[in-house]
Amino acid sequence: MMDLLVDGAEFSFPEGWSVLKYDASKFYTTVFLKVHDGIKAVDVVAVERDQLNGSDLRVVLIEVKDYRHPNASGEKPSDLASAVAKKVTATLAGIAIASRKADDTDERGIAARSHIVPRVEVVLHCEDRAVPIVDPSDLAIALSKRLKPIVDSVTVGTSRRTQGPWLVTMPPV
Q1: Who is most buried in 15, 83, 122, 163, counting CB within 10 A?
Q2: Does the CA dihedral 147-32-116-49 come out positive or negative?
Q3: Is the CB of residue 126 less than 8 Å from the CB of residue 63?
Q4: Nearest CA-CA partner of 64 in 117, 122, 13, 115
Q5: Which domain of life is it from (predicted)?
Q6: Residue-by-residue DSSP string for 68-133
Q7: Model-level pTM?
């Protein structure tokens, strides 16, 4: 298992996954972020490798949102979809460049693998209150409409339904 802490959520990825907290990576923070004011990226870039033949199967770009706090206010699905779509496109551009320019060999390796996989998937991990302030199905539809031309799959997950083989443990509110 590979564990990664993202905005308080603990992601546990099974064997066969290479994971990078992209928006905190050395390449993103010291190089890519300085190229364009205000550019943002997804939280996690994860590459799944086939355990049998060693080939990379897919890259999953994960963005984490936590609306469980009492003061949290949800964005309209169209606004959130727009923000996530911008992060996804910036991340895809960033990993393409990082595959050639990142100084950190681990970051460069994951970026290079991410850049050539046969599938690109996006997961918006969205934790919500018992009475939701964001409708996951509306969000998935809005996000899919925007990203369908450039990715293979878009889903909205929670710690109860992660939309992948990883586990997510959320801290108490």
Answers
A1: 122
A2: negative
A3: no
A4: 122
A5: Bacteria
A6: -STT--PPPHHHHHHHHHHHHHHHHHHHHHHHHH-SSHHHHHHHHHHHH-S-EEEEEEEE--SS-S
A7: 0.93
pLDDT of residue 73: 65
Q: Whose CA is closest to 21, among 102, 84, 107?
A: 107
| Dist. CA 118–CA 116, nearest whole Å | 7
Cβ burial of 36 (10 Å; 0-12, 13-18, 19+) is exposed
Q: State the burial class of residue 41 (Cβ atoms within 10 Å of its Cβ: 0-12, 13-18, 19+).
A: buried
CA distances from 165 to 18, 54, 108 (A): 13, 18, 24
Does the pLDDT at position 105 exceed 70? yes
Task: Calculate the dihedral angle through the C-alpha atoms of 50, 104, 46, 54, rounding to the nearest 10 degrees.
Answer: 0
Asked whether the beta carbons of 156 and 124 are under 8 A apart, the reply is yes
Query: What's the Rg (C-alpha) of the chain?
Result: 16
